Known about the structure:
Structural class: alpha/beta
Oligomer: single chain
Shape: globular
Number of helices: 18
Helix content: 40-55%
Amino acid sequence: xxxxxxxxxxxxxxxxxxxxxxxxxxxxxxxxxxxxxxxxxxxxxxxxxxxxxxxxxxxxxxxxxxxxxxxxxxxxxxxxxxxxxxxxxxxxxxxxxxxxxxxxxxxxxxxxxxxxxxxxxxxxxxxxxxxxxxxxxxxxxxxxxxxxxxxxxxxxxxxxxxxxxxxxxxxxxxxxxxxxxxxxxxxxxxxxxxxxxxxxxxxxxxxxxxxxxxxxxxxxxxxxxxxxxxxxxxxxxxxxxxxxxxxxxxxxxxxxxxxxxxxxxxxxxxxxxxxxxxxxxxxxxxxxxxxxxxxxxxxxxxxxxxxxxxxxxxxxxxxxxxxxxxxxxxxxxxxxxxxxxxxxxxxxxxxxxxxxxxxxxxxxxxxxxxxxxxxxxxxxxxxxxxxxxxxxxxxxxxxxxxxxxxxxxxxxxxxxxxxxxxxxxxxxxxxxxxxxxxxxxxxxxxxxxxxxxxxxxxx
Length: 459
């Protein structure tokens, strides 16, 4: 089944802007980058040229580049050799706006990646480059084309995209955040949220559930995705110790993530202690750091910062881990022996984290990464700054009716404009500066207390 992806509209806007910059589409392996680009190219361009640097077409294009650039002293210099290389590769090539060239797995060739600036400055046609392991391009030999690229990120399916696959997007869009919609709508959305927390959003896994309605079968598909990622990643790592770490590091990340609520001052040291069950040393920490950096650049994990005393101006970077897909998170929480209650709480936070990270990258919220906050003797799950209204809000992800001491102190001391309580078992509501919203509707929350308060008064 073809899954609708919201990034398609972003691709259309990139085409319409015609900025002259190369588009770099990022995202983890098997999120559907090649599929969506193929669909976009076929539906919007007259000429579509596809090159995969990890396949034979990549070898053929390199041969074309070599032939087009061949020159001997005393001979006339070749004009525009890159244009000639594309003509040699595909006789249909025309350098105009009706042509798009997609270069996939571009990290496999430093020679081609380093020509991105020329693609941007010397061509009229449109270029998209992509790859699952673009983290490799931080190595020497890769020229980073700052200023000549635009970035888009394709993640696994969001909850909204997941619902759309089941024909339930309209219920999500219509449900009132504060509980005035029919309760059966919230109950139905809650059931799909539970499924999403089990399966995650990898397209192959979602399609598996659509076909089988079997979460165990989905788990087998997810395991294969994880194992393929591990096998492919080891090709890029520097030594055997780093390769061997992959099987052990994921459960360790899960264990560490639920162990300490206030964040770790040194995540790498703590991971080393969990994995090796001993005091860390320079060698083990170096290997763990290399693997973690790879997982981050491969969009498998993300970091959360800490705001000390809930002061956004005093932050500590990279103080907590979250996974970039809920299915992956759940799998490794189980592998790490995490009990269901703790796993469920962490997954709820991870769900919110993924939404906040999207907003950070879209510059809807302040900061590069989501952040949690410590305050006096407690902590709050997330602290956000709304760029539009310049207000700071707290977010508590929890079950039950208790407000939480830290949240109340933040309100009493004027550290936040309001606190949003995101819960699975609620239909929503608002009291003073405390706004309760079903967690599965977090993607629709604007984090604007004044706006929500006015909506309540006019109902």
